[in-house]
Amino acid sequence: MSESIADPSDFRRQRAGGIAAIAVASLLAAGLWLGVDRLMSPLPGMDSLADRMLFTLKCCCVAVLFCLVTGVEAVAHERLTSPAFDPLARFETRRLRVNQRYLQNTVEQILVFGVSLFGLAAYCADGAEMRAVVATTVVWIVARVAFWLGYHRSVALRGLGAPGMMLSMIVLLYVAARFGHEIAGVAGAVAPVAAFLLAEAVLFWGTRPQEPSGR
Question: What's the pTM value of the predicted model, to 2 decimals?
Answer without folding.
Answer: 0.90
